[in-house]
Amino acid sequence: MSDLKALFSPRSIAIIGASRNPKKIGYELVNNIITGGYEGRIYLVNPEGAEIMGIKSYTSVKLIPEEVDLAVVAVPAAYVPDILEECGEKGVKAAIVISSGFREVGNVELEERTLSVVRKYGIRMLGPNVFGLYYAPSRMNATFGLARVFPGSIAFVTQSGALGIAMMGWANLYKIGVSTVVSMGNKADLDEADMLDYFVSDEETKAVLMYIEGAKDGRRLMSSLKNITLKKPVVIIKSGRTEKGAAAAASHTGSLAGTDRIYDVAFRQSGALRATDFAQAFDWVKLMTMQPSPTNDNCLIITNGGGVGVMTTDACEEAGINIMPLPEDLQSEFKKIMPVFGNFRNPVDLTGQAYEESYYRALELALKDNRIGSVIVLYCQTAITDPVAIAKAIADASEANKCNKTVVTSFVGGAQCDEAMRKLDEFSIPSYPIPERAVSALAAYYRWQRYRLMQRSLPLKI
Amino acid sequence: MSDLKALFSPRSIAIIGASRNPKKIGYELVNNIITGGYEGRIYLVNPEGAEIMGIKSYTSVKLIPEEVDLAVVAVPAAYVPDILEECGEKGVKAAIVISSGFREVGNVELEERTLSVVRKYGIRMLGPNVFGLYYAPSRMNATFGLARVFPGSIAFVTQSGALGIAMMGWANLYKIGVSTVVSMGNKADLDEADMLDYFVSDEETKAVLMYIEGAKDGRRLMSSLKNITLKKPVVIIKSGRTEKGAAAAASHTGSLAGTDRIYDVAFRQSGALRATDFAQAFDWVKLMTMQPSPTNDNCLIITNGGGVGVMTTDACEEAGINIMPLPEDLQSEFKKIMPVFGNFRNPVDLTGQAYEESYYRALELALKDNRIGSVIVLYCQTAITDPVAIAKAIADASEANKCNKTVVTSFVGGAQCDEAMRKLDEFSIPSYPIPERAVSALAAYYRWQRYRLMQRSLPLKI
Description:
The first copy, chain A, has 462 residues and is α/β, with parallel strands linked by helices. Chain A is 42% helix and 18% strand. Chain A is elongated, with a radius of gyration of 25 Å.
């Protein structure tokens, strides 16, 4: 594991193939590493030895006067083996090979030659054919994607480089914080299993989101998954589920998508959570990085609208979340804080006349009761109440009654609800514009939690 | 049908229970009708005969000197029968009874007395216990929800008033235009079937979105559905799917949710499309109001990213959309407009280097070919291309090659993609932030289209 330190937290980086032409990847890389705020030493290498963005270039990595931990390589494919040979002689420990034109276009021989060079020198290589690695803890943006990313605790591992770039944009737009964005490319050396092994003990990463089209070594991937999912949730999008999808995957990354059913079972047995699309995957990891996992099976719904209460109940039932029958003593407690026409069963319906005070007291009751493991708080926009004030009350109640229950929210309505949800997210209380998305995230968290509990009571079979 | 003209397009409205207290529903109603831009005559009625917002009030509807088509009633429940008696004597043709406190709280007798009054005078009544009716063609906002709504061609019919208010906000936030928002409440007189019958020939309504918890008269609802779905798509969210959900529905609106399976079959047989949540429902009607329905089963995917192409293929396969094998002549045409390493099968992968020109030419090829019935255009954010310019190219190609194919798009990425999608929506080319949502909408459109074609070749059984 420690051999990936040079990849994730290098003390110095050489960008080989650095360019002063803003349309070139070799320029984007320099620009992103500098503007990303990387604090280690940066060296540039290009044949002309030109100065780029105020930094002098060397004509060879071997001429760099100090040690180089990581080489980022963006030169034409044919030059890559020689460049890596030089890196090896220089003592470089890790390489990110951005260059494409290898196995993915049929150049198997070139890829194997490249691999034999890095193996000879013990260099760990990401790629070839990757868009790079962004790692927030090192403030290192060694990608040709967006220059700035919202830092956080989700590690995003993707087989598709294009998706990686798109996801950096997506994460920024929805203010989803990522610890890592890493593109796997052809996986000649490092693959997803290596990444998972690294994230097990990476303190900045709380959850992993992975897009794969096919695994190189299924058994090893499963073993790494089994290991990490005991500590951290892993959400996987595996495409190529259908016959035509698999055919498309084969012509995209050359992956053998394999029988989908096998992946399904393998993921389940390894405690990984399979999502159908990445909006869903992001919904799930958002909850998992913001809230503790549920401590028991009993879920309580608090709402101000009957309709959303019914929808949420349906979604919970279908997803295997237990809407607990409310014990009588709790019923009487809730009765005290709501109008006579409210409903003190589960869903607890505070009615459309519920102001911030009602929400505060209802959530407080729920958080203080040990029989409850998770709470879904719903708000349906009304003409008389203020969603932002109610969001604040939910955050306050949550802050004042810190506990290890899982709280999710959904605010259904217009612009004010949107503002309220942004506020909740800031307080690490995840919110979703429709209840079904909150339920889907909570259900995934429950599945992971149940898996972990089962693993603890049984001998580990890895 | 024509007897609902007084409800949807009254020449004059009396608001009975109008209030000058901004916290009262009787004030919200006056405010919304005035600021909504209603151009007919407005009369106010309240016991004090006070002036409200510059309009004089009458102490009784009977004292209004001119004819009143529609009465909007917001007085305490107990007074409602007498108020409607007066309306009947005055010759009022339709009434919206906002007041609650009837069957939904066990006051069955009061509701039946109210119904007998409107029956006696032939008044058509919406309610009681509704949040009102917004109807864009009349610029009539007779609700206590939001004052302004984005006008458009979706009719939203909801059993839950709270959801109606929330959905008005939602529609505004996502710039979804609605022709109607109507809350059904206790359905003492008018119910969903009446609304559907009205929308059949309502030129401003292109699609209906309905939230119901249970039907009063299932057979009649089915008959109305069968009738309208021959002309316009109807998307239904029916909650109370599960046992606990049904129990929650019973305590919310007193609906007998019934065996869900029966609803499922009934909706399918009537050509209605059942959505699982309202985000999905809005996704579907967005496509259906913007684009013509697909003319044949063959779908073509155009993409700049292999990953999203694979995901979309999977989603299509699972949803029953036929990803057509591309005929050789079309393959050669596509080959001409893409880089050598592009993929001219289906999905057609223009590669990450596809600029606006490539998109324009690829979409043009697809739109000009009669073997293609629908097109899914995907864009995955890259470091070098401009999503807004590509959106423009898609809109231009679509405008220059007007045809009856269905076009949907998905732009995956950050803020620029979001901007690009807003532009596409303005050009009536529906776009979605993940491909799976575009596919889900297209699949629903196909299901409706197949249903209609089947109905045409068979004798209609209504």
